[in-house]
Write a sequence for this structure.
């Protein structure tokens, strides 16, 4: 029996050492999460406008076109509960923060990162932000989330070519969705609309949780004298014409009702904004860098108008 256990140990030992080594390498590869966390650690006290949310904001807002000190804190598939968690984490450091801008898109009320097909991304908040929305032990490890061949490829790229996983600008804008590589808007419109459409009855509990999260964000913002701007991001007609009308109206009506009840809350719907044309989209529901400049400037103008109206009222 002792010989058998010894053989098992000798067999497993190099595998365990290999796994530990791979885990340590992966955690040391700079990525968008570690970069944004480090930026917020250092600069949160100077930020005046903070964009949060999912890939629509990550690729759709370029802070360099804002006149106030702005940062893009969005991540791919980041849901409302993680927006809230990041805000709470830096609550005491947001000394100058006046505006938080958060997308409420077609899918926002009916989906959460920790409940969807991209649940594996939750580990990024546990590892790099030290945020845990659910107590799940394996979320503390890179190698147990995602595919092994992808992990090995990333590790090799970093060790051999010093290739990192940072894909954002210094101010957090996602740079991969470039107009030179625009996708087919017809095909991506259908696929994205289908991917973002949910069984409304089955996802009723998710809807309720997200509504509570939005109210918590508003409450947090009031307590810290921050204005909240919710927006529905622009999309190409090949996306929005394939959406479920009930899900869309539930979303728009809900965020409108919530916003109208709060003095520090605004809502703007850009979904079908005709000023965005084909050249502005990377795919049917994401802007490229051309569209991102246009949307950022629109938001910048909105903030100026809010400031001007506040001055008049005072």
């Amino acid at each position: 029996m002792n010989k058998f256990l010894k053989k098992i140990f000798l067999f497993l030992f190099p595998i365990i050492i290999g796994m530990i080594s791979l885990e340590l390498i992966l955690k040391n590869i700079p990525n968008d999460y570690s970069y944004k966390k480090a930026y917020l650690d250092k600069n949160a006290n100077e930020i005046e406008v903070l964009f949060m949310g999912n890939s629509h904001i990550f690729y759709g807002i370029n802070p360099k076109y804002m006149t106030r000190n702005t940062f893009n804190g969005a991540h791919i598939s980041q849901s409302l509960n993680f927006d809230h968690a990041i805000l709470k984490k830096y609550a005491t450091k947001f000394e100058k923060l006046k505006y938080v801008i958060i997308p409420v898109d077609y899918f926002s009320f009916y989906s959460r990162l920790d409940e969807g097909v991209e649940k594996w991304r939750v580990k990024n908040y546990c590892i790099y932000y030290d945020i845990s929305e659910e107590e799940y032990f394996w979320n503390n490890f890179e190698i147990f989330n995602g595919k092994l061949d992808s992990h090995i490829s990333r590790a090799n790229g970093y060790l051999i070519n010093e290739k990192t996983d940072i894909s954002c600008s210094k101010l957090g804008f996602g740079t991969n969705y470039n107009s030179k590589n625009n996708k087919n808007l017809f095909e991506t419109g259908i696929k994205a609309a289908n991917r973002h459409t949910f069984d409304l009855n089955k996802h009723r509990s998710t809807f309720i949780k997200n509504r509570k999260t939005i109210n918590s964000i508003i409450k947090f913002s009031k307590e810290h004298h921050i204005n909240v701007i919710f927006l529905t991001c622009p999309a190409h007609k090949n996306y929005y014409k394939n959406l479920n009308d009930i899900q869309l109206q539930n979303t728009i009506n809900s965020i409108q009702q919530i916003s109208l009840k709060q003095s520090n809350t605004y809502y703007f719907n850009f979904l079908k904004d005709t000023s965005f044309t084909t050249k502005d989209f990377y795919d049917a529901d994401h802007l490229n860098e051309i569209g991102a400049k246009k949307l950022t400037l629109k938001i910048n103008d909105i903030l100026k108008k809010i400031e001007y109206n506040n001055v008049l009222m005072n």
Notes: The chain has a mean pLDDT of 94. Strands lie at 49-51, 70-72, 99-103, 227-232, 265-269, 281-283, 286-287. The CA atoms of residues 55 and 221 lie 23 Å apart.
